[in-house]
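Many introductory courses stop at the sequence. We go one step further.
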Amino acid sequence: MLPGIILFTFSDKFDTYAGMKTQKFQTGRVALVAFSHFIHDVYTSFLAPLLPLIIEKLSLTLSQAGLLSTVMQIPALLNPFIGLFADNKGLARWLVILAPTFTAIFMSLILSTSSYYMLLLLLFFAGISVALYHVPSPVLVAKYSGLRKGRGMSIFMTGGESARTVGPMFAVAAVSFLGADHFYIVMGFAALTSVLLYFTLEKEEQKTSIKKKGSLKESFHEIKHVLIPLSGILSARAFMHASMGVFLTVFVERETGSLWYGGAALTLYEAFGVAGVLSAGTFSDWLGRQRVLFWVLMVAPVAILIFVFSTGTLKIIMLAITGFTVLSTTPVMLAIIQENAPQNPSAANGLFMMISFAARSIAVVLAGIIGDMAGLENMFIVSALIGFCAIPFLLKLGTKI
């Protein structure tokens, strides 16, 4: 993480020296939106650690429990329409301000419901709020980042990645301290964050609201030259993302016989993922988006293959490299989308996120099927080989940068 911080500090000096007043990187506002990303995603991470309590309270089957996460993700299909709404109404700021509180309300009540169907409803509305936040927030970050959009997206995504580590621990600690009946009190942190966002982001958003009404068709035509290749990259990367993010713990536990080692492996993977997210966007500002994507997309599948066949220290090193490379592509791709969508930035981001959601969801199912049929080791090998398929799409990426 230290190299990324050093890069950020140097970039600030460069922007000031160059006299880019209108394109200045607004560190305070970018950091605040990233902090709101962290707070928001802490609440969305509550379901997994609290699931044992929910299963026991509502006497759920594993199938019913599995449906909870799916219901929460369904609203992601609305992302393009949410983005278009934010663009046409100039409401990006308001969605970013209010969504953390709405998400916190729904997620903080999941232990209070006594009905499975009410729980499904809470999670569905939480999913809507999640979409309302994640579609316009990168747009604000892009505006506050000036010419350093990659750097801004790195900081923004670091907030979300960090929440995956802190959120489960916070949820368990809150239940232990407050009890399930008073767990809802934790929503207060999100309310304070929304107040802070309101007073900090208000004036800037008034300057940058989009007045022209657009359509999804216009948005697609505006970014299709980058969205189509990025869709191929997302589809190929999704298999690597699914195999490592979902099945890593199971793979390590079966190899070592220790669940603790499995959890430690996932923690290491996510930790280096945060470092990759923090660094990749900034490097892409300096070296170019396509060049950075090329290197991480080439290294990631190689690292996975070596991870599968190696042992000891080398296996640990390859796991760290895999986390750094697989997870670092998102801020770079977000920057590409925003740089190529000046007219409908939220709608464009919505299209990108919808495709990302669909690719990831399908890849998880297919990876699981491969694992059942051929074994987890072969699943990782196939996922890595599919990862190489991202390179031809990258070569067709016709950006305007």
